[in-house]
Amino acid sequence: MASSYTDSLGLEKQGSGENANTWGQRLNSNVIDLVDEAVAGYATVALTSGTQTDLTISDGASSTGRHATLEFTGNVAATVTVTIPTEQKTYAVINSVTNGGNVLVVNTGSSVGAGKIIPAGHTALLASNGSQVKTIGGEFEPGTRMAFAQAAAPTGWTVETCATYDNAALRIITASTSGTGGGTAGSNNFNSAFSTAIDVVVSGIAVSVTGDTGSTTLTISQIPAHTHTVSTNLVVGQTDTSRTTSPPTVDGGALTATQPTFATGETGGGAGHHHSLNSHHHVVSAAGSFNLNPKYVNFIVCTKD
Question: What is the domain range of residue 40?
Answer without folding.
Answer: 4-136
